[in-house]
Amino acid sequence: MSPWGAGRRPFAAVRRLLLSAAVAGTVLVAGLVVEQASRLRGGEAQAPWRIEADLSLTAFEMERVGPEGVDLRLTADEAQVVETNRRLVAKGIEVAFYDKEGTHGLPGETASGRGARLSAERGEVDLDAGTVRVSGDAAPARLAMADGTTFSAPALAWDPKSRTVHTEGGVSLTGAGFEAKGGEAVADVAGQTVHLTGGVRVEWTP
Amino acid sequence: MRGRPQGGARLAAIVAGGLLLAGAATGSAPAQVVPRTLSLEGKGGPLTVTADEMSFSNQTGRLGFVGKVNVERAGMKMKAERLTVTLAPGATAGEKRTIERMVAEGDVTFLYGERTATAGRAEYDPGAETVVLTETPTVTDPSMTVVGRRITIDLATQESTVEGGAFTFSEEP
Known about the structure:
The structure holds two protein chains of two kinds. By secondary structure, chain A is α+β, with helices and mostly antiparallel strands. Chain A has one helix and twelve strands; from the N terminus they run H-E-E-E-E-E-E-E-E-E-E-E-E. Chain A has two domains: 1-50; 55-204, lipopolysaccharide transport protein A fold, CATH 2.60.450.10. Mean pLDDT of chain A is 76; it is low at 1-8 and 107-111. Helices cover 12% and strands 51% of the residues of chain B. In chain B, strands 1, 2, 3, 4, 5, 6, 7, 8, 9, 10, 11, 12 and 13 form a 13-stranded antiparallel beta sheet that branches. The interface between A and B is medium-sized, with 29 and 29 residues.
């Protein structure tokens, strides 16, 4: 009798055990997959493995890339990314809008400043739509355009589709030697034009 | 001088008016100068414009006002449906720019002293200190009414030039 013969019986038992375990494991995994698929078909809104995380950051900086390249750069003293509603909430926010030539500087900052700059105590960014709304209490939100025109309001909202900034609340505008006040305003950042409505008062002082 | 013409100035106005009436009666209407009959005191100082809406482009240097436009400066008031303000070119962005020209259109009313001017169009040139009224311009004060094709008010010399017009005088009470 071969010494290996007797010795083979225990290995055969191990193989049978492992085979049984593998079959049982396969059945278990398949069962879980079927159960999960059934739950998803049943209309459960949230997959159980979804990961949610909020991030709090300081000295925050973010660039938004549009079809023609970077179209705005956002910086903030503090920022919090809230994943549940896809929002970024920031304090000490500043947004620089780039023009088609990729310039974002204002007069005095670059040789050919042609963009615009939005600044406020706080702001909120819709990360999906790309809209930015800024506001302030101690100081109003402010938009400085490259042509030297600046206007301020309790709140300002940036619409990336029209590339315009809308005011919320009374607006105050200064530029080219005059001061203007109006009910509301829309600033076309690309065209560097401003349209005031809701009753306008403009004053030139020699 | 403020208000209605007095003394020699009033006489000159009457003479000028007579000349214009004669010109109108004969079918010819030469330009006439009415010396010191129109006064605009307190020129300069802040200029204020109110309106329903305003558009501004620093690149074109134009401000467009629409709807119930009111212009006010010491000694004068103007109302119109529309107003376009053209700024003098600025050397750099953000530089203070002066007003080069103002054009008011649509039922223009220009008030100064005791006089009221109406026209379809008024053009104010701050550099030349003139207001040019066109499109059926009329100037009225308590003693006379001037209707012309074109009336130019010189704010610096306080003279007005009436082209293609006629004077109508009313007796003082």
